[in-house]
Structure to design on (235 residues):
């Protein structure tokens, strides 16, 4: 099943307009024709089904026949990760975090991070593709913070869990805590600094071991999210 993405400002009066690469992908790559059925999501819970009534060089217009609004899954899961130096590995981590259903991705420059600029437009494109591939209707926001302290202040009140080799083996919290909004933190390639560990202690963060092996940041993100979802939905 193919789905397409149109932001809310391209949806008006029961007409959805695909532009740019989305329109080219539909009309050129997949060869959709006038009258064909097509499905579009808007990234904020909207699922649209309709038929194409116009195709031009860079635009596909769709007459909406069915519209469903899906509430965002609760509780919210935010993944915070130290910025990865190599772009392809950062993009891989973002892609898999979206597929695993996070609400937001919070990137931060840890004290052990190698300084690097982040191409926000490229990461958003990766996130859109992952959202469509996994048949989701919510597009996670991707935000960049100057340090971990900024993330902790932004998500004040969230249950904080951090991946750490010396942490507990598995999730041992009360099942009642499964319903809390949760911030999952993974350090940069050099790990958490002493100051960052002190911040985690101050926040009463639950340290979780992901196994005996030392993992790369992108591997830790996938493992952490997978283990968290298994714990949350089991029992």
């Amino acid at each position: 099943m193919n789905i397409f993405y149109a932001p809310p400002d391209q949806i008006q009066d029961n007409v959805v307009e695909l532009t740019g690469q989305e329109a080219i992908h539909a009309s050129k790559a997949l060869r959709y024709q006038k009258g064909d059925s097509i499905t579009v999501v808007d990234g904020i819970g909207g699922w649209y089904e309709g038929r194409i009534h116009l195709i031009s060089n860079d635009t596909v217009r769709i007459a909406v026949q069915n519209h469903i609004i899906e509430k965002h899954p609760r509780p919210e899961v935010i993944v915070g990760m130290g910025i990865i130096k190599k772009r392809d590995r950062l993009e891989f981590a973002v892609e898999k975090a979206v597929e695993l259903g996070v609400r937001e991705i919070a990137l931060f420059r840890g004290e052990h991070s190698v300084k690097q600029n982040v191409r926000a437009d490229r990461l958003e494109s990766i996130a859109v593709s992952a959202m469509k591939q996994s048949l989701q209707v919510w597009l996670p926001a991707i935000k960049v913070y100057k340090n971990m302290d900024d993330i902790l202040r932004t998500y004040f009140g969230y249950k904080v869990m951090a991946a750490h080799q010396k942490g507990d083996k598995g999730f041992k919290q009360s099942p009642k805590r499964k319903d809390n909004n949760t911030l999952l933190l993974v350090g940069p390639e050099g790990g958490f600094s002493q100051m960052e560990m002190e911040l985690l202690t101050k926040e009463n963060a639950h340290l979780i071991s992901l196994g005996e092996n030392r993992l790369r940041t992108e591997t830790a993100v996938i493992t952490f999210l997978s283990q968290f979802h298994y714990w949350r939905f089991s029992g």
In short: The two ends are 32 Å apart (CA to CA).
